Amino acid sequence: MKAFERNRSFTQLIEFEIEPHQQEALVSALSAQTERLAQGYDGFLSASVQASDDGRRVLNYLQWQSREAGEAAFERFESGEQDFWQLILTHQAKTVTFGSFQVLSSIARSQDNALHCNLL
């Protein structure tokens, strides 16, 4: 792997398909879990929990400083440290889709209202 590739941030997307009556509880559980991630895992950058308007999907977006940081955190989840699989069972997820991505470009608005684009 090239040096510049190792320095790119890394994003994990986890999409849950659920029954609408489970959405609020799953959002709450993922929000609490995400707060624990922010406090306890090296390399954590940002996260969000998003809910679809139809109530049938929840998206958990996690961004890390590196692929290694994100994969290390997920390995701890799989080993039961944060009981991720129990969360899936408790909220009766029909499907769970995992995606991993390297960030190649990003755009953000600064406090002075300017747009900043980072191409890596």
TrEMBL record:
Q: Which InterPro entries match?
A: ABM_dom (IPR007138), Dimeric_a/b-barrel (IPR011008)
Q: Which UniProt keywords apply?
A: Monooxygenase, Oxidoreductase
Q: Which domain of life is it from?
A: Bacteria
Q: Which Gene Ontology molecular-function terms are recorded?
A: monooxygenase activity
Q: Which residues form the ABM domain?
A: 10-73
Identify this protein by name: Antibiotic biosynthesis monooxygenase
Q: Which SUPFAM superfamilies match?
A: Dimeric alpha+beta barrel
